[in-house]
Amino acid sequence: METLFVKSALGKTTEKPVWMMRQAGRYLPEYRELRSRFPDFLSFVRDADAAAEATLQPTNHFDIDAAILFSDILVTLPYMGFDLRFESGKGPMIANPFRSAKEISQLKNVYLDRDLIYTKNALQKVRRKLSEEKSLLGFVGGPLTIASYAIEGGTSKTLQQTKTLFYQDPEAYSALLSHIAKITGEYLVKQAEWGADALVIMDSWAGNLSLRDYQQMAKPFTEIVIQKVRENSNAPIIHYANGAAHLISAFANLSVNVIGVDHRSELSDLLTAYPQKIFQGNLDQALLFARPEIICARTQEILELTKNRPHIMNLGHGILPETPIAGVQAFVKTVRGI
Ligand code: CP3
Known about the structure:
Elements: H1 4-9, H2 29-35, H3 41-45, H4 48-61, E1 66-68, H5 77-80, E2 84-87, E3 91-94, H6 112-115, H7 117-129, E4 135-141, H8 143-152, H9 160-168, H10 170-193, E5 198-202, H11 211-217, H12 219-232, E6 237-240, H13 248-251, E7 258-261, H14 267-273, E8 278-281, H15 292-305, E9 311-312, H16 325-336
Parallel strand pairs: 1-4, 4-5, 5-6, 6-7, 7-8, 8-9
Antiparallel strand pairs: 2-3
Bound molecules: coproporphyrinogen III (CP3).
């Protein structure tokens, strides 16, 4: 059965599906309870029962159209040889970042059926419990975004080291990105095989690049991922980048079904400039802290702008940890027309 979500992503309906980036998270009391059973984030993600439960929590709590696998964009890095830790309050940290050509020979291959068996188990558990009308989303990071963690050793606002490696040693940069792209493409195909109905590529930090650098530093590697999926699966692909309004022209000729945009993009301009494209998102995640009538009015504006075309309703970026449940309800109910 084709779900509303998949139909919308394929451009077959103007009815609007809704989900939220980072919808399993600390704003949900049931998530905080589950999270407290694990000493660290990676052991939580690697426990297939817990990951399946976290994946299902938002769909049990709200009338939304999709569950997204509870995992992270960085889960393949440890098997490539990176010492990844999530320290509370600090986010992801890598103790042995990739800084030069010397490290190329140390990159390891990932054996997905063995190393990521917990993803397979979690997806299959979710698929058994998730209603047929809802979609299960698999996801990966864009190669540039994953590589930025491997190179910087953590989250970077400037991508300083990543750009330095690209400018000073393009061959080493390209070797790392090619390695990540190959594994990322294979991992996304596996997620489709294991039960994901639609696939998201989250190239969150691509917006840090100029259009010119994006074309060389990121796009060719994202295309490797997309091509691998297209060769092996019919699942629709959503591409997301944060703060990337200046890159939409480059995303528009990626072979993806949906382009995710954050709140900085002027949606009405995009809809005019790209009459054939399907977009996702655009509602400012901070808006969910406002009074329900304001959330309702802003959500209505997006529904009105897109009333004659497909659009996937979502926030511009991940839901913030202190978001009030009532704000989420106001958003979802407005999409549902209640
Ligand atoms: O509900 C969902 O969306 C599914 C789960 C999910 C997580 N991370 C869980 C998570 C998804 C889809 C991601 C993607 C992800 N991870 C992205 C791309 C999307 C985006 O937000 O731009 C990025 C850039 C990461 C990298 C990452 N992981 C960061 C920067 C952090 C720390 C910041 C934070 O939100 O705490 C993480 C850790 C992380 N990933 C947590 C969760 C629930 C928090 C870990 C904890 O409980 O300590």
